[in-house]
Amino acid sequence: MTMSDLHDVVVLGATPAGYVAAITLAQHKHSVVLVACPAPATESPLLDWVPHDVLDASPVLKSVKSAFETAFKEIIYHSQDFAQQAEFHSRAVAGYFVRQPVLLEALAKKAKTAGVKLKRFARAPHIKLEENSALLVGEAGQVEGKVLLICQDEPDAIMTELIMPLRITHVEELSICGLDVPLAKSAGQEALHLVTYGSHEQIGMFFHSGGMLHVRMLSALQLAPAGVEQLSHFIAQLQQAELLPAKLSLAKANAAIWHPPGGVALELEAHLAKRMLLVGTAGGFASVLSGQTIDPSVRSAVVAADVTHKALNSKQMQLQESLAEYKRQWRDELSDRIRLPGTSMKMLLPIVYSNSAMAAKLARTLLYGEPI
After folding, report:
1. Torsion angle of the four alpha carbons 295, 297, 299, 301, in this order, in degrees rounded to the nearest 10
2. What's residue 188's pLDDT?
């Protein structure tokens, strides 16, 4: 095995969080290498959405804003039988629709310009945390850094790999099945549509952007895992309610199933080990309510990059102590965005259809994590 150069930071994961952390640290003049390798399906590979304020939270994302192809100002709620409907209209942009591959391509170009080195492994590398460095060891060699940021994978897999304490008392294990279908013509005004099923355990969602329709079903994994058959039934219901075209080009569609670690960050014993931080989905940064990963993952990456930059500029003996600030900072900035609202969704949803103020409150909870 060849000897490795010692970098300031090694980032594991060519994800939105991984790129944002790597680019931010490279812009601070640190030597950064980003390692791309296969990972479990914890984030959407399809058309997705983000709240508008994630661009203010991350200058890196704002610099690739062109990847966010369509803005939306409306959130429309539908009851399961489609007999009731409620709408939230925002005067300003509420969020954006984005194709995950387009976003990652834009971030990859930005990373190259910023001086981030890229290394690809065919398989997930072995993680070694030493006294003076952290290493990723793979079939083609190893990558070594003063600090390691893990920005992909599932929290329990990382904890098992590192033999770290895993204390999870209660989390929503989420399952999302999604489908991207090309549209022959425009489907009308852009909006984020939610179809509620009487509880927070199951939410249908659909939206369209750039000639593409996206439909997804989100379920609590232990109660009703989302699957292809369930999604097909949901699409048929939407067509019957005339919310989708009667004919769809399903032969040209792309489908995927992924499992966001909804709210797991709030239950982990630690996000810190020797010279290592857990970021993005590896740290459990995903919304329990919507399964959204880009927004909370990127925000965790911004915090991790800030903490890492300060730690690298501290005295060697204080590096680990400086990294420990990560937990306090992400909790201050991210907790509300990934937890469930304090009020039961079973009680909220019937009110939404008759109370416009409640529809607006729920929209702000969905978008920004505001308490109801």
Report:
1. -150
2. 63
Got the DSSP string for 52-107? TTHHHH-HHHHHTGGGEEEEE-EEEEE-TTSS-EEEEE-SS--EEEEEHHHHHHHH
CA-CA-CA-CA torsion sign (298, 304, 307, 311): negative
* N-term to C-term CA, the chain: 55
Identify the three-state secondary structure at position 371: coil
What are the structural domain ranges in the chain? 6-45+100-169+262-338, 63-98+171-260+341-368
Read off the tokens for 78.
């539908």
Residue range 63-98+171-260+341-368, CATH number: 3.30.9.10
Could you tell me if residue 241 is left (phi over 0), alpha (psi between -120 and 50 degrees) or otherwise beta? alpha
Per residue in 19-77, pLDDT tens? 999 999 999 999 999 999 998 999 999 999 999 999 999 999 999 999 998 999 999 99
**Residue 323 pLDDT greater than 70, yes or no:** yes
DSSP 251: G
Residue indicated by tokens 């990127």:
298
CATH number attached to the domain at 6-45+100-169+262-338: 3.50.50.60
Q: State yes or no: pLDDT of 169 exceeds 80.
A: no
